[in-house]
Amino acid sequence: MRTTYQYRLRPTAPQQAVMDQWLEKLRHQYNWLLSERFQWWEEHRCPVNACPLVCHLPQLKNQPDCYSQQRSLVPMKQARPWYKEVYAQVLQDMVKRVKLAFDRYLKGDSNGTRSGRPRFKGKGRYRSFTYPQASLKWVNGKAVNLPKIGKVKLILHRPLPDGFKLKTATIIYKAGAWYVSLSLEDKLVPSLMFDSPTPENTVGIDVGLKSFLVTSDGEEVIIPQFYRKAEKRLKRLQRQLSKKKKASNRCKKAVKRVAKVHRKITNQRKDFHYKTAKKLLSQGKSIGHESLNIKGLTKTRMAKSINDAGWGQFLQILSIKAERAGLLTIAVNPNGTSQDCSSCGVKVLKTLQDRWHNCSECGCSLDRDHNAAINVQKRAVGHPVQAL
Q: Domain named Probable transposase IS891/IS1136/IS1341: which ranges (predicted)?
């Protein structure tokens, strides 16, 4: 079993300066190694016997790979001695990031999905570095001992689980704050067995914008709208930012103020999602939900409200937490869940403004979202209501 715990760091000013310097040095070397791969690809992308007449035949070179680029770090440190200040394994992990980014561009991920062309990192765009061989000995209750940086104050808001081995430690800089993500592994944790979904051990949920979600039991979770509530303050701060001279010190400070508001909104939303997922899973039931095309929905007029609700993040958190609790999350076809009657299966046409379901065939009358949640539950267990 693999899990990650993230904690807030409180580094001193000298420690922040060191970590900032590391990020900048890693950014430069990342761009250099990525350009080396691009150059080889442009020169060797087709066989010599199939090369078009408009190109020149370069001197053939070996393809840069992870190992050759890691070996190149040794002469690079001799030519640029200031790179010796960066922990060696952190530099080696940066080379792996270049490899992963370039391989996803050429070959695709495990599902065969290819990414776009990797971008060169601009100033401030390289925000994390990883210790690939971390140890639990580095962590105590008040600090984490990072090689070549020292003991950095740590806010251990929850204890580390027993029996797990620390694999990697990643230092992340986000909107003026430093965090450490500890990747933990325990190979002795057995694989969980999941019960088959039944009407008794499964609950359906319908996510929306009027309410964040409604369950098939009729429970409603109010939508918090964190971004909408902070929109007025963001508008004021962004107006102040627009009046600053670009790249000036005042501009940088204004950017940080805007980033802090966005960071707070993100943290509030994630905290709400975790608490909502925990409340749902505390019933000990599997969860059925609609398989929504969220990316497509964010291109509609309701994009701001959908992004504010964060359905995608919530469903991802729900899936992870359910798996660890030995429960299932079942995605069902969303077509007709709001239109079909949950009692008799007859299609009752409604517009988006119609918030109540009234069936003329069986007399079923209940909230539109509650009706959809019941339909989701029945589809999740494999027993949808069919119209007679």
A: 197-299
Average pLDDT over residues 103-122: 85
Does residue 217 sit in the same domain as residue 351?
yes
Do 151 and 208 lie in a common domain? no
Percent of the residues in the chain that have a pLDDT greater than 70, as a whole number: 94
Same domain, 36 and 155: yes
Same structural domain, 155 and 280: no
CATH number of the CATH domain containing 361: 3.30.420
Q: Where are the alpha helices (DSSP H) in the chain?
A: 13-44, 66-71, 73-79, 88-106, 226-242, 249-281, 294-297, 303-309, 311-324, 368-380
Domain around 99: 2-185
Tokens representing 254? 């204004």
Q: How far apart are CA 350 and CA 300, in angstroms?
A: 19
- Between strands 177-185 and 213-215, the pairing is unpaired
pLDDT exceeds cutoff 90 at 28: yes
**345-381 burial code (b ≥16 CB/10 A, e <16):** bbebeeeeeeeebebeeeebebbbbbbbbbbbbbbbb
Q: What is the pLDDT of residue 168?
A: 96
Closest C-alpha to 285, from 190, 200, 170, 372: 200
In whole numbers, what is the pLDDT of the chain averaged over residues?
Answer: 91
CA separation, residue 225 to residues 222, 229, 280, 288, 369 (Å)? 9, 6, 20, 24, 18
Look up residue 135 and give its two tokens: 């140890």
Same domain assignment for residues 71 and 161: yes
- Map residue 102 onto helix, strand or coil: helix
DSSP string, 149-165: TEEEEEE-SSPPPTT-E
Asked if residue 25 has pLDDT above 90, the reply is yes
Asked if the model's pLDDT at residue 102 lies above 60, the reply is yes
* Separation CA 287–CA 203 (nearest Å): 5
